[in-house]
């Protein structure tokens, strides 16, 4: 029972790191980025190449995956996404689905369609036994890393100058512009950072979530659930939503394996029915 | 008050004029049916095109006319596909046409129920709910593999001859004609809906839901109605696919299918019924051509087409094709007007 809770929290933390970039881009620019999972996949494959093929230590591979994906995200944002912000939601959906298709086929072409595994150092394999609860070392690492990241993100958002600019831009873009905040630049940085986080999540999660070319399609719905259920106005909303989702998914798969992901989709639809703005969204009209 | 009667007459005359079949449309359908004799070796791909066109027609009804973005048309397509496969497999209903109509009704029922979910919230919520419903059904079909065959697909479906007379043959001759006729009937129904006062009110809802409500249009019920109809047509397309291939697999529910459908509609143009049909033809050609070049990675090029279309600008693409369409329409009317110069065959403004 507690092991399920533990695994669920690890899974949820992972989902949060993967999805929080998406929630910020959605809240900031009202932009539906279905291709967010592609960046996560890029991070995962980046780690596979760095760690497995080039023999770089795992601990070094993770930050490099983050950097690589952030650069990639920034590049895409400046060259492609920038043209689509002002378009209708339909255009945004089409555009990002197109990107997903391209990334799936491109990875299939370059890396093959089989599932990839990241070589995890010996020290991180195996389990602890704490008060009779089996805790995977790797999952514990995920919880620690993601937990630290969450705290760092929260501090960054609330305490730094950039954070307050970002929050201002999310709350009201036009007024923020009027106050001299360069919303475009804020957005570019946030986008790159969010992509980087997704890449890091993909690298960390390759072991748990599995990594193959269909990754962006498989997990797109999960990211979207986190964002829609959690709302886009804060970082705590998506965080709670992803923890809930993680625990719900792991518990659902454990107790009623026959229904599988059905549980999650049902929860999502019920939540959207009751609270179309998201479970944890502030009820301010925007 | 006395002015009311001429006004009502004017309105109905206007509606009748709008709804008149233009010569170009007639030519389109004559050509469509002529393909039965023109391209005898291509029945299978033409059949797939007809089904895709029907499916795209269903999406156009809600996207082009009511402005609802959906990534979940595959839910109706798949549900009806499995339904028609199951009733045929277990011999509950052997007659394909009856099974087809029933499958459409089943899908429409699902559409009616889910429409209330879809009508809440913003575009993003709609996307999520439509996508969620189709994924949910896909997951159900996967889990209850004792009924649906799971990942192996529904096998052992035998479809009885149409109306007890026409047997499905190996070359797709019967199934193409069957699909084409179904497409035509559904098209006529959709066309009737779109050109009716109901269709006009849908356009006004799409234009501005608030103002439409202010002039007394029951916005919610109009959207529920069109969503239900659209689900029914999508269902008929799905049932057609199962009946003509005697097979149904889990990929009927996949996201790819709904996404491809959007692409079809974008290629053809939304908001006029022929968009889906023309888009389906172009898409199938593209797919066939790309798949023959790079069989495994054609998805990449489809994705590229999507990205390029959006970057160039959908409205711009539509404007180019609109100029082309206008030129063809003028040509058509001029040709038709010459023999009967009295007939005021004004081209339909789309």
Structure description:
The complex is a heterodimer of chains A (286) and B (350). Chain A is 72% helix and 3% strand. Chain A is mainly alpha-helical. Chain A has one domain (2-213). Chain A has a two-stranded antiparallel ribbon. The termini of chain A are far apart. Chain B is globular, with a radius of gyration of 21 Å. Mean pLDDT of chain B is 81; it is low at 338-350. With 350 residues, chain B is an all-alpha fold. Chain B has 15 helices and no strands. Classes of the chains: A mainly alpha (286), B mainly alpha (350). Chain A binds chain B through residues 26, 32, 80, 83-84, 87, 89-91, 93-95, 97-106, 108-109, 217, 220-221, 224-225, 228, 258-262, 265-266, 268-269, 272-273, 276-277, and chain B through 63, 69, 71, 117, 120-125, 127-129, 131-133, 135-136, 139-140, 142-143, 255-256, 259, 262-263, 266, 296-300, 302-307, 309-311, 314.
Question: What are the main properties of this structure?
Answer:
heterodimer, A: 286 residues, mainly alpha, globular, B: 350 residues, ABC transporter involved in vitamin B12 uptake, BtuC, 15 helices, disordered C terminus
